[in-house]
Amino acid sequence: MNATNRNYRATFILDNRGKEESVDQIIDGVKKVIAEIQGEVTAVENIGKKDFVRVTDKKFTGATYVHVSFAAPAGAPAQLRERLRLNSSVYRTFIQSA
Questions:
Q1: Which of 58, 70, 62 is nearest to 14 (CA)?
Q2: Alpha helices in 37-87 (DSSP H)
Q3: Statement: the pTM of the whole predicted model exceeds 0.85
Q4: Of 76, 67, 89, 97, the residue nearest 34 (C-alpha)
Q5: pLDDT tens per residue across span 30-66
Q6: Beta bridge partners of residue 49, listed in sequence order
Q7: What is the reported pLDDT for 18?
C-alpha cells in the first residue's frame, strides 16, 4: 500500500436471481473492478442472505450481503460506484472510510 491510498470498507448487496453466476463469481468480478481502479482488496466477508427491512419489490425481499475491505486512492469510491452502476448483479453499494 502506498502513502496516498486510503482504507475503505464497502458493503455490497448482491442480486443473482435468474442468473447463472454464483455469489463467489460476482464477488470475484467486484474484486477485479477494485483492482482496475488501483485498489488492493485486503479482506472479504460474506455475511450471507438477509431480509430487507424495507421491501420495495415484493418479489425481492432479501439478498446476499458482502463486506469488502480495500485500500485505494481517494477518488476510488466514486469510480467504483460508477463502474458497478450498470452491473445488475450488484443491487446496492455502500462505501465508507475505514
A1: 62
A2: 76-84
A3: yes
A4: 76
A5: 999 999 999 999 999 999 999 999 998 899 999 999 9
A6: 64
A7: 85
Q: How far apart are CA 70 and CA 34, in angstroms?
A: 8
Summary count for the chain: helices (H), strands (E)? 2, 4
As a whole number, mean pLDDT of residues 9-26 equals 92
Residue 90, strand partner residues: 14
Helix (H/G/I), strand (E/B), else coil: 5? coil
Q: If you count them, how many residues does the chain have? A: 98
Identify the CA nearest to 9 among candidates 93, 84, 89, 96.
96
Can you tell me the distance from the alpha carbon of 42 to that of 57, in angstroms, rounded to the nearest whole number?
33
Residue reference for cell 469510480 = 79
Provide the percentage of residues in the chain whose pLDDT is more than 90: 83
DSSP 16: -
